[in-house]
């Protein structure tokens, strides 16, 4: 299961000013979260916009925010799909 990054600018701002008050670098966030530096770097450059659920939770926890602040979980087939603004479209 992969979580979609909600907004790159929000991710960058939270890295610069996390709940703990000390800005994160790619390296320090990787160390704090256990997620590889390459994955975090690729998120920051926009090369990727999805992460494994465990990595999304680890990054969010390290930054001191709820996972849903940064990431959008996948929609199950029974509940529908998301439009371009990530609103759920229910199946009829």
Low confidence ranges: none
Count of domain modules: 1
Name the CATH architecture: Orthogonal Bundle
CATH class division: Mainly Alpha
Count of alpha and pi helical runs? 5
One letter per element, helices H and strands E, the order comes to EHHHEHHEEE
CATH fold node name: 434 Repressor (Amino-terminal Domain)
Task: Report the biggest beta sheet as strand number plus sense, adding barrel if it closes.
Answer: 3 strands, antiparallel
Strand composition percent: 5-15%
Shape: globular
Helical content band: 40-55%
Question: Explain this structure to me?
Answer:
It is a single chain. With 92 residues, this protein is of the alpha+beta class. It has helices at residues 8-16, 26-33, 37-45, 53-63, 67-70, and strands at 2-5, 50-52, 71-72, 81-82, 88-89. The longest helix has 11 residues, at 53-63. The chain is built from 5 helices and 5 strands. It has a single domain, classed as lambda repressor-like DNA-binding domains (434 Repressor (Amino-terminal Domain)). The strands form 2 sheets. The chain has a 3-stranded antiparallel beta sheet. Strands 4-5 form a two-stranded antiparallel ribbon. Helix 2 packs across helix 3 and helix 2 (26-33) crosses helix 4. The chain is globular.
Task: Give me some keywords for this one.
single chain; 92 residues; alpha+beta; 434 Repressor (Amino-terminal Domain); two-stranded antiparallel ribbon; 45% helix
